[in-house]
């Protein structure tokens, strides 16, 4: 059985706890053991890199160091955590003077990092390591007849991740096909849901989520499938307000 260090991130322990409660049994069923990282800290998400890059890279360096000491690669289900850790890993591997200084500071704090850790997203492991044919064998109840809009969000396909085609990713679509669902041609699959903007500037957040829901409905989707906990949160909590504001019944399961 392959083993990984599971980095839950803050969302999996709070507003996206149901995401964690779903994903952990799936990994167990397909034969991958996840060991939750001990004494993990917040990665700061992408916002931290805009505020103070030095501190942001340092806190991510600590996370990478913990995984390296355990001798395991990381699995990060949260899109923001995945992107931030991937970006930080590439930064440390750049060997710039700034990177060397932060690595030296981390070492002095007992968090030495040599760059041996790979950061993975669950979807990548499902499609690449396990393989879709093996996934098919594990399906107990196919989602036959269910039309789904596969929504990746804007973070897992950004630069630094080499996750999939940045303009039109297909990994999630292929996974949905493997379990019997029918992915629709969803042109909004990499549009932004607004992230934390929904809490700060509600009008803008509602508009962005309205576009996502409208396109899913237009394509005849029965549900939206997403791999980002914040996208999941936004698409769920905004629906009632969107129906009221735009006078349309775009309610759809996420």
Automatic annotation (TrEMBL):
Under Gene Ontology molecular function, one entry of this record is:
oxidoreductase activity
Pfam families (UniProt xref):
CCG
Keywords carried by this UniProt record: Oxidoreductase
Q: Which InterPro entries does UniProt cross-reference here? A: Cys_rich_dom, HdrB/HdrD_reductase
Q: Which residue numbers delimit the Cysteine-rich domain?
A: 5-86, 148-235
Which PANTHER family does the record match to this protein?
A: COB--COM HETERODISULFIDE REDUCTASE SUBUNIT B 1 (PTHR42947)
This protein's name:
Cysteine-rich domain-containing protein
Q: Which organism is it from?
A: marine sediment metagenome
């Amino acid at each position: 059985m392959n083993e990984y260090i599971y980095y839950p991130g803050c969302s999996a322990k709070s507003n996206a706890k149901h995401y964690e409660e779903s994903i952990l049994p799936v990994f167990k069923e397909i034969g991958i053991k996840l060991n939750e990282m001990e004494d993990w800290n917040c990665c700061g998400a992408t916002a931290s890199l805009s505020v103070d890059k030095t501190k942001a890279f340092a806190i991510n360096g600590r996370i990478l160091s913990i995984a390296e000491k355990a001798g395991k690669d990381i699995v990060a289900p949260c899109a923001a955590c995945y992107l931030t850790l991937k970006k930080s890993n590439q930064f440390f591997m750049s060997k710039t003077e700034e990177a060397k200084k932060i690595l030296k500071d981390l070492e002095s704090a007992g968090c030495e990092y040599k760059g041996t850790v790979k950061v993975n997203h669950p979807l990548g492991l499902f499609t690449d390591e396990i393989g879709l044919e093996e996934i098919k064998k594990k399906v107990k109840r196919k989602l036959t007849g269910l039309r789904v809009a596969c929504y990746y969000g804007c973070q897992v396909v950004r630069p630094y991740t080499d996750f999939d085609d940045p303009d039109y990713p297909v990994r999630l679509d292929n996974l949905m096909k493997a379990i019997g669902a029918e992915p629709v041609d969803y042109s909004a699959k990499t549009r932004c849901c607004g992230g934390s903007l929904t809490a700060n500037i509600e009008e803008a957040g509602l508009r962005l989520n309205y576009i996502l829901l409208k396109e899913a409905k237009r394509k005849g989707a029965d549900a939206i499938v997403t791999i980002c906990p914040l996208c999941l949160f936004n698409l769920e909590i905004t629906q009632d307000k969107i129906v009221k504001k735009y006078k349309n019944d775009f309610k759809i399961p996420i």
